[in-house]
Amino acid sequence: MDINVSNFSMQTKVMIYSIAAVILTIGMRDIATILIPIFFSVFIFLIFAPLIYWLKRKGIPGGVSIGLVILFFIMVFTGTGVLLMEFLPQFTSQIPDYQIQLTESMESLAGYLPVGMPLEGFLPDIGVFIVGLTAGLLTTILNAGTTVGLIIITTIFLLLDIAVPGKIRKEAKKHPFLLSRTNDLGSKLVDYIVIRTGINLVGGIGAALILFIGGIDFAILWGILTFILGYIPYIGFFLAVLPPTLLGLFKYGIAGAMAVFVAIWLLNLLIENILFPSVAGKGFELPPSIIFISLMYWTYVLGTPGALIAVPLTMVVKMVIESSGDMRWRTELRESEKED
C-alpha cells in the first residue's frame, strides 16, 4: 500500500519527521567513526576537484590533470603533516612549564582584584583549564593519524572517479529534474567550500606573519591552527587566538597578550566582515541561530570533527529541504493541471 505523507495533518507530519530525525541522529552517531572519513573525504574532494577542471580548460589532458592534482594534494597534506609533527611535540613538551607560568601570571593578576572577590580564587584554575584545553585540542590533531590516512586514500579514489564520469552522466540524464537540482546543490556547495578555504588560507598566513613578526613561539603552528579552525564559525576564532595570546602573556606580559589578541582580532574582523562577504555574496548566508544550533548538533553527532564541517553539512540539509519543497510544489501543480 502506497502511503502519501502529504495527506497527513500537520501534527502528524511533525511527529513523523521528528521521529525520523531522532532515528537518523542516533544512527549517524553510532557510525560516526565511518562517517567522519567519508564526510571529510568529500569535503576535501570538493576543494581539489575544481583544479582538475581548471587544468582541463587549459588544454591539459584529463588523466594528466588528475595526476597533477593528486600529486599536489599529497604534497599539501604531507607538508602540513610534517610541520605538525615538527612543532606539536615541541609545544606539548613545554606544556608543564606553560601551566606553571600561567598559574603564576594568574596569581599575580589576582593581586590586583579586591580582597574577597569570588574570581580571585578561580583565576589559577581558569589558567590551568585554558592550557589543558589547548593541549587537548592539539593532541586530538596529533592522534588523528589513522583517520587522516583513510581520508587521504578515499579522497584519491574520489579524484580518480572524475576520469570515468560517462556512466554516471548517462544514468543521470534519465532524471533531468534531479540532475538539475543536484548540479545546483553541488555548485553552491563547491563554491562555498572553495571560497571558505581560500579565506581561511589568507587568515592562516596573516596570523602566522603577525605572530612571527611579534616573536611569538610556534607562529607557523598557530597559523595552521587558524586555518583549520576557521571552518568553525564564531568559536573557531577564539580557539585559534587563545594559545598565541597566552604565549604573548608569558613573553611580554598583559600588554603583549592584549596586542596579540587585538592584532589577530582585527585580522579576523577584516576577513569575516569585509573580505568573505565581498567574495561570497549573500547566497551562502545562514542565520547565526541556525549556525549555532548546527555546531551543537554536528558536534554531538560526529564529535569535535563535526564542528569543522557543520556549516557545509547544514547547507546540504538546507538545500535538500528546499529542493524537496520545490519538487513537491511542482508535483501539486501538475496534479492540478490534470484535474483541469
From TrEMBL:
Q: Which residues cross the membrane?
A: 12-28, 34-54, 66-88, 127-160, 189-213, 219-242, 249-271, 291-321
One Pfam family it belongs to: AI-2E_transport
Q: Please provide one cellular component term from the Gene Ontology annotations of this protein.
A: membrane
Which topology term describes how it sits in the membrane? Multi-pass membrane protein
Report whether Transmembrane helix shows up as a keyword of the record: yes
Compartments annotated for it: namely:
Membrane
| InterPro entries tied to this protein | AI-2E-like
Keyword Repeat assigned to the entry: answer is: no
Q: What is its main location?
A: membrane
What are the UniProt keywords, alphabetically?
A: Membrane, Transmembrane, Transmembrane helix
Task: Please give the family membership noted in the entry.
Answer: Belongs to the autoinducer-2 exporter (AI-2E) (TC 2.A.86) family.
Its recorded name reads Putative transport protein
Q: Which organism is it from?
A: Methanosarcina horonobensis HB-1 = JCM 15518
